[in-house]
Each structure stands twice: as C-alpha cells, then as structure tokens.
Amino acid sequence: MATPPVTREPLRELKDYLKFLKDCGYTEIPVQATLSGHSGPGAPPMPMARKSKTAASQRLEEVRKELGDCTRCKLSATRKSIVFGSGNPGADLVFVGEGPGADEDEQGLPFVGRAGKKLTEIIEKGMGLDREKDTYICNIVKCRPPGNRDPEPDEIAACQPFLVKQLLAIRPRVIVALGKPAASTLLGRAVAITKERGAWQEYNGIPLMPTFHPAYLLRFYTVENRRAVHDDMKKVLNLLKK
Ligand code: SF4
User: Fold this and answer.
1) Is the CB–ligand 1 distance for residue 173 below 6 Å?
2) How many CB atoms lie within 10 A of CB 84?
3) Is 54-240 CATH 3.40.50.720?
4) Domain limits of the chain?
5) What is the pLDDT along the chain (242 residues), one digit of tens a residue?
6) Order of strands, edge to edge, in the sheet holding 86-87?
7) CB 143 less than 6 A from any atom of ligand 1
8) 109 CA distance to ligand 1 centroid (A)?
9) I want to staple 59 with a disulfide (CB 3.0 to 4.6 A). Which of 169, 188, 211, 242 is the partner?
10) How far is 238 from 231, CA to CA, in rounded Å?
11) Are the C-beta atoms of 152 and 100 separated by less than 8 Å?
12) Which residue, judged by its Cα, is nearest atom 6 of ligand 1?
C-alpha cells in the first residue's frame, strides 16, 4: 500500500507555537488562543489587508519622496541609511517602534537585529501572522540615534510629521506602539508603559495598543513580561477579527 504523503509544515508550526506559549509561561494551551482567538497555527485566516495596497503604496511613496535625503535634524549627520519602514502598505496592523539600531542603519530596514527577530517571533509564532504580508513596521525617528540613545525631543519633533503622514497613508485598523517613546510620541503625553500597556488608547480615531518594546523583553526576559506582550497581542487580534 502506498504511504500517504507527510505534511511536515503544519506540525512544525504547531511545535513552534507550543514552544512560544511555553516561553510565555503557559503550562496549558489557553483556550481563547486556539478557539475564538486567532493565535497559532490552524486558526482561520484573518481578513487582513482589505484596503487597496496600490493606493496606499502610492501614498507612502509620496511621503518617502517628500522626506528625501532628509537633514531636518542632527541625526542625519551620523546615520548611514534612512530607515523609512517596511511591510505591506495596505496592512491593517502597524507596529511603531523607537528608532533604528546599528543593524537597521546598516541594512536600511526596521527591526532586523535581535529585537527585530523577537518582534518577528511575536508576529509570526505568537499571532500566527505573516510579518511582510500582514503588517507594516516603522519607527518614530527614521535615523539611528548614536550609540542607540533615546531620540531627543527636537529629533522626534522633526521626524514626527513623516510618521503622521505614513500612518495617514496606510490608514491601519490598529496601531501597536512598541515601548514608551513610541507610545508617548503617538499619544502626545508621557506614557508610563509598565502601567499603561495592555489598555486600549486612540490615535486619530485608530485603536492603539501600547506594549513593551521587544528590546525591553530581551533585557528583562521574565515570564510576566512575555506573557504581558502575548496577552496584549491577543487583544489586538481579537479587535482585528471583528
Ligand atoms: S530622524 Fe527624521 S527628521 Fe531627522 S534626519 Fe532622519 S529622517 Fe530627517
């Protein structure tokens, strides 16, 4: 009798997802994550990216053109690349981080270093989404602050109009602010991220979820922090599927 073909991919996805849950401190599979939530392999596909990708791409290109070879703030003096953003311009979900690091400056792409790998893991293993197809990722400043220091208020102020225009071009259904600087910039006030993460806010009528930056997760790799981000992303998925 012929042996049926073996499909390895779903099993590998399931194994990755179980490992991810274990990393988040779960000893059992949370029911919501597999039945009504969208996390994990085997979940029904989400109605993502329903907007016109082409129109959003064109709008984004115009923003990029206007930014040009920007020298509007002092970060231009030390950067190698302007890290504008990457992903699907028609995405329903946008992640906003703080600023490029050394790897990002080198490659001209956001979240490609260690923190980027963590973010990809959160998106792909934790949320069951495809980073390139289902999300768009950018930062509040597009050039690397030297030595990875926090961006300064004048730098944020110089770059912010382009973040606003990017978000207007994409028109996502949900924004995730990664860390205090991103949340504070978008909300226009000092956000206490440890207290305020996980609670919905609003940015120009768009639901905004503040959560920990993946670099913070790597620095403080506790079960509580990992579970907090997992729970925040579950809320994001639940809203996106509505
Ligand atoms: S951080 Fe923004 S405003 Fe400053 S130089 Fe770079 S692109 Fe221009």
Assistant:
1) no
2) 19
3) no
4) 54-240
5) 444 455 555 666 666 666 656 665 566 665 444 333 334 444 444 445 456 778 999 999 999 999 999 999 999 999 999 999 999 999 999 999 999 999 999 999 999 999 999 999 999 999 999 999 999 999 999 999 999 999 999 999 999 999 999 999 999 999 999 999 999 999 999 999 999 999 999 999 999 999 999 999 999 999 999 999 999 999 999 999 98
6) 86-87, 135-139, 93-97, 174-178, 206-211, 201-203
7) yes
8) 15
9) 169
10) 11
11) no
12) 143
Does the CB atom of residue 73 touch ligand 1 within 6 A? yes
Smallest CA-to-CA distance from 97 within 183, 223, 205, 221 is with: 183
> How far is the centre of ligand 1, averaged over its atoms, from the C-alpha of 175 (Å)?
21
Q: Is 141 in the pocket of ligand 1 (CB under 6 A)?
A: yes
Instruction: At 8, list the tokens.
Output: 């390895």
Q: Considering Cα of 133, then 134, then 139, then 140, what sign does the dihedral take?
A: positive
Residues linked to residue 86 through DSSP beta bridges, in sequence order? 137
